[in-house]
Amino acid sequence: MIDNKIHLIDTTLRDGEQAPGVVFNLKEKLTIAALLNEAGITEVEIGTPAMGTREIEEIKIILNAGFDFKSLAWCRAARSDIDAALKTGVNAVNISFPVSEVQLAALSKNKKWVLDTLKELIGYALPQFEYVAIGAQDASRSKFSFLSDFIGEAVNLGASRVRIADTVGILNPITTADLFKKIRDIYPAVPLEFHGHNDLGMATANTFSAFHAGATAASVTVNGLGERAGNAALEEIVMALELSSSIKHHIKTSLLNKLSYTVSKASGQPIPCNKPVTG
């Protein structure tokens, strides 16, 4: 089990690498992981083992480097993905389930399949990892009654944390806060993570809002790197917490600039001169 303290989960090596045209080589991954470790990141979503043998081997090499952070592999709701994660030696898995009507229809699934598979996969993964996190994919477009049932079932089955994902970046700081307050009214003690996408330019603000409304963790990327318009930016969240909030983050701010420029070089995406915090 991980604890309930507010912490940041870096997913630069997973979601960040899903940005168009971005592929990190092993040396770059090790350099980024070392800087994240030095900066005090306590948990890293390190990759997607289901991508194949090369991904599995590179994850193993990174883990064998002896970093202090907990390692997390992202998995679809499939036993084969969990089996692939087992080959890497990661501490934990984040198993992602579609929870919105839109995504369920697109995948030809229904709510019964979600809850049945949730039970099956948590039961399968729990004995094999230190902890299991569960992702509510497209939670921001889910019917709240089903999202609430999903969270409750995940925790009852033994999940250590539930990720509330704004998969298409449709939330704003007000609706983010409203969503987390509604969840907190029902589940005051459940560890909740927010995963924000930046399609409307609000991922950082939404993440900040989620923390103030009851989130205990958030997944972020260096420079906001990620698919489409990206994710919440690690360096912006850290400095927003540092200067505009009473929430403690435990990240070494002196390393943010080096992290930002290292990832910029590795990703081939220049930092704009007017980029907040590190521009």
What is the topological layout?
Blueprint: E1 7-10, H1 26-39, E2 43-47, H2 53-63, E3 70-76, H3 79-86, E4 92-98, H4 101-106, H5 111-125, E5 131-137, H6 144-156, E6 161-166, H7 173-186, E7 192-196, H8 203-212, E8 217-220, H9 234-244, H10 256-267
Parallel strand pairs: 1-2, 1-8, 2-3, 3-4, 4-5, 5-6, 6-7, 7-8
Helix pairs in contact: 1-10, 5-6, 7-8, 8-9
Task: Write structural notes for this entry.
Helices cover about 40% and strands about 15% of the residues. With about 280 residues, the protein is an alpha/beta fold. It has an eight-stranded parallel barrel with strand order 1-2-3-4-5-6-7-8, surrounded by five helices. The termini are far apart.
